[in-house]
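4.2 Preliminary Data

To establish feasibility before requesting continued support, the project team ran the inverse folding procedure on a target of 108 residues. The structure was first converted into the token representation described in Section 3, and no sequence information of any kind was made available to the design step. The complete token record follows.
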């Protein structure tokens, strides 16, 4: 596949190179940086209401909170960019912001 020359495109190329079938759905974990535990719980509820499976985590080393919002989808560039924009709109008023994504893919 031909992906744009940016961080999302680079990540998609790595997932494909690792053997995933990019035409089949896979679980994608979208990270949303949040300013506090309370904000994380608020983002988690809003994300769950629109179909994400949220999980709140704290990096004990630096004290930062992240709400991981998981969704199963076909990993097209447009779908990933749209999901991040959706999470930005959802988390922005609470002080949160989309902070990338990751996946284990669907190879194997």
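Position-by-position output of the design step:
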């Amino acid at each position: 596949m031909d992906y744009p020359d940016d961080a999302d495109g680079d990540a998609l190329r790595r997932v494909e190179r690792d053997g995933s079938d990019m035409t089949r759905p896979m679980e994608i974990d979208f990270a949303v940086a949040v300013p506090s535990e309370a904000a994380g719980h608020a983002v988690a509820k809003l994300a769950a209401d629109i179909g994400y499976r949220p999980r709140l985590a704290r990096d004990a080393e630096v004290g930062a909170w992240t709400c991981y919002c998981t969704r199963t989808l076909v990993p097209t560039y447009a779908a990933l960019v749209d999901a991040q924009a959706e999470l930005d709109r959802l988390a922005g008023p609470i002080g949160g912001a989309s902070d990338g994504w990751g996946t284990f893919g669907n190879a194997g």
